[in-house]
Write a structure and sequence with these properties.
With 414 residues, the chain is mostly helical. Helix content is 56%, strand content 6%.
Length: 414
Amino acid sequence: MQIDPRQFQVRREQQLRDEVVGDFGVRKALAKIREVRGGKGYGYRRSLLSSTLRLTRSMSPEIADTVAECKALIGHEGPVEVYVTPEHQFNASCYRETRGPTVLTLSSRLLEAFTPAELRFVIGHELGHAAFDHYGLPMPAAAMIEELGIPFVSRPMSLKLYAWCRSAELSADRIGLLCAQDPQAAASGFFKLASGMASPRVVPDLATFARQVESLASAPEAREKEYDEDTLDCFSTHPYNPVRVRAVWAFSRSKEFLAAMGKPTGDAWGLAEVEALVDRDMQLMEPTYLQEKSQTSDTLRRLLYTAGVAVAAASGGVEASELEAIGRLLGSDHGDEVVDVAKVIGDLEGRIAAALEVPLLYRAQLVQHLTIVAAADGQVSAEELQVMEDIAQRLEVGAGVVHQTIRGAMHPID
């Protein structure tokens, strides 16, 4: 059996890629990356050959057969080399230059703990990146590269690049599932990657894991370090784990997947229904009010500034790092301004009242973005926490969202 991977590519990825590759700044960034990298593909392969173990068929016929089966399924042409890296974590990656072989790396821990079906899912996922040529738009380099301190890519386009990157992971997940041909293997593979556990005491369930999305806050993590863009979900290259799981779970129930597996489609979902669910879930990581031009966006941006100043002032004064955090969120420069704290906070009540008219999702995003401001100086004080809780309650979001944000970090699984 052979499939055309493009038939299963996530719609959102296709749309976003068309947008970003047509942007002048993105094209300029890609040209600069090619200039800087030169022959990096061969250099990367050389470093692997000198420091890791390359698996041959004689060493591991099982892995060789799995790679061959996945290649045949998706019509991948050209050689694939597999390397084992000495790591104690579950990791896998894939890289391909314009010339040379596709290079697949698997950690020794992953090879030891994953079942054959789980390995097919992981290997299929990585080869999915190659099938869709995700390496032709290298991230996060494309969004971050600059010259003389000036980025090639504008901030709105940078956000689209990250959104494309997250959608690309979902396309690769679909290829992983098609290679594994077993949703339960995908469930257990996701569970092991997300939890680091490989214990038979826990039996993962794809549908149960997928339901975590319902209680998932669209939150950046407030870390105990200086603020940087990596703490924002909209600057993440990977979707939340539960979002990925639910996307795979939904795809496994689609007519297109079942037909590819030779199974009856019956009451299966249409791919359009799957795409609608993916679009809705992916919005959890895309706080569009930060870049849109609309009345709703203006309302939320004004409140974010006012509430951010209120949170920053709660612990004895507004620090420059906190103003910088607000400016980075809003895409503007507040770092050098003198703030009349009393005057700004005086507008808080009215701006909260205006924000009650916007959807709850955006209010929740705003509350959790306040943790970025609170954590900008390296810690979240009790006074800052109290102000955030109060703002959350007045926005009818719930103070628990603040605690979830500060406590929970969602990490990419590959």
